[in-house]
Amino acid sequence: MEISKENFVLQKVSIQSLICQNSWVKNESRTSFLKSCLKSNNPQGLLHFGMMQYFAGMKLEKGLFKIENAAKYEIKEASYILGLVLLCSGEENNVNRGMTLLTSIMKELKGKGIVKCRKKLRDFLHSIWFKNNLISNNKPHIACPEQHQGKILSNWDVGYYYDEDYEDNIVCDFCKCAREIELFYQMLPSVV
Predict the structure, then answer these.
(1) Are 85 and 117 contacting, i.e. CB atoms less than 8 angstroms apart?
(2) pLDDT-based confidence at 19, cuts 50/70/90?
(3) Which residues make Cβ contacts (< 8 Å) with residue 38, sequence separation at least 6?
(4) What CA–CA distance (Å, rounded) separates 38 from 45?
């Protein structure tokens, strides 16, 4: 069966099952098809390859660009990951933008949606050779003006944040971002 090369089809087709296949095994037709999808700005492809470049390939600008483009296609996981990455960048403009993006997506998705984003990121990070020591060595601190964090982060059960019945009971945006950063840094594998 011939797969259409038309940009519209390549942009819209779901490639999740192809991405999830064992990437260690070379398959020229799969690789060619995925490259065509990426050239056509397939949002799933942009997110996956952006994360590969950012977290495993140390091609930070290229990876961030692809993640940002996936977020423009309203891929919720891309917005979540982009918010975290920008928060962890250390650059003031990016930190502010990251906090705005992350709080916005958390308000939109609520419990189960955020759990899905966390799991996707965790599973991805545990499936690659993580090489981005810029993130792993620079954990940011989000200062809550009300100083809620000490109470919140000292009494939490990490497993609860991956539970499908997760309900977010934190109302402070600063504390929510601090919690997501804490979870993100717990997800990070050791740098290879």
Answers:
(1) no
(2) low
(3) 45, 46, 49
(4) 5
